[in-house]
């Protein structure tokens, strides 16, 4: 069975440009999160289009993550042309599909997916950002991403025309007896590190309680700052093999 909970807040901003969506029941589910870029409402439009497009594709072709990203990209580009807004209507996107004890995910941008097993972090998506690239080439350490000056400079997003797709998809994995997933925007993960994600997870019996505990840390660490929108989806998977 899958149990999930969601959180989305505008932080210190006037508009919440994050969007979330899900379709789940029983042992199968599809979860989507997007963080719009551009301001002035354009980012909000882009993130909503991405989430709505992905959910619509999933409802027709469950498990086709490629089409979720491609359809989202096409719809955003089409909307840009209507409003001559190609420079500002962009978004990240991260998706998770779980079915029959297996999981697969995809992402573009710096909205992340974390995978925990037995209370321990075992994998996260790598950001499509300048700071993540600097980690890859060894110029900075992983822990320096959160405070780096280039952490918000993204090198891949939906809404930038491409000759070939720029999103990344994971391999399908077989889930164990107790797996947990967290999808979140950068406004969330920048204000809580992985150590506290694990720490709060171990004290949380439900995804809603886990998000509540993490939100307290995010708001505490964001106090007095110009907080970005922050959103998260928590998914608890309890399969018995």
Record the SSE blueprint:
Layout: E1 2-9, E2 18-25, E3 28-37, H1 42-60, H2 65-83, E4 90-91, E5 93-99, E6 102-108, E7 112-117, E8 120-124, H3 130-136, E9 168-169, E10 173-174, E11 179-184, H4 186-189, H5 194-202, H6 207-222, E12 230-237
Antiparallel strand pairs: 1-12, 2-3, 3-4, 3-5, 5-6, 6-9, 6-10, 7-8, 7-11, 11-12
Provide a descriptive summary of the structure in words.
This protein is an alpha+beta fold and about 240 residues long. The protein has one domain: PPM-type phosphatase domain (Phosphatase 2c, domain 1, 4-Layer Sandwich). About 30% of the residues lie in helices and about 30% in strands. Strands 2, 3, 4, 5, 6, 9 and 10 form a 7-stranded antiparallel beta sheet that branches. The chain is globular.
The CATH H-level homologous superfamily: PPM-type phosphatase domain
Which regions are unreliable across 5 or more consecutive residues at pLDDT < 50?
none
* Global mean pLDDT: 93
The structure class reads: alpha+beta
Stated plainly, the CATH topology is called Phosphatase 2c, domain 1
Our count of domains comes out at 1
What is the helix content? 25-40%
- Our estimate of the beta-strand percent is 25-35%
Q: Rg, please? A: 17 Å
CATH architecture: 4-Layer Sandwich
What's the CATH C level? Alpha Beta
């Amino acid at each position: 069975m899958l149990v999930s909970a969601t959180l989305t807040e505008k932080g210190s901003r006037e508009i919440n440009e994050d969007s979330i969506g899900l379709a789940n029941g029983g042992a199968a589910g599809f979860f989507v999160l997007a963080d719009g870029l551009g301001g002035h409402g354009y980012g909000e439009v882009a993130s909503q289009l991405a989430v709505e497009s992905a959910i619509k594709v999933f409802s027709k072709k469950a498990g086709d993550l490629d089409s979720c990203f491609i359809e989202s990209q096409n719809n955003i580009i089409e909307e840009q042309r209507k409003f001559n807004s190609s420079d500002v209507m962009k978004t990240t996107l991260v998706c998770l599909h779980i079915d029959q004890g297996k999981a697969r995910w995809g992402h573009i941008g710096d909205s992340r997916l974390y995978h925990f097993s037995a209370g321990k972090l075992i994998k996260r998506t790598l950001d499509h950002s300048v700071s993540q690239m600097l980690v890859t080439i060894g110029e900075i350490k992983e822990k320096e991403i959160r405070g780096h000056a280039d952490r918000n400079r993204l090198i891949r997003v939906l809404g930038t025309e491409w000759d070939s797709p720029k999103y990344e998809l994971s391999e399908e994995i077989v889930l164990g007896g107790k797996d947990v997933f967290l999808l979140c925007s950068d406004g969330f993960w920048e204000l809580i590190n992985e150590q506290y994600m694990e720490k709060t997870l171990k004290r949380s019996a439900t995804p809603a309680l886990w998000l509540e505990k993490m939100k307290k840390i995010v708001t505490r660490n964001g106090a007095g700052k110009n907080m970005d929108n922050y959103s998260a989806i928590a998914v608890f998977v309890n399969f018995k093999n």
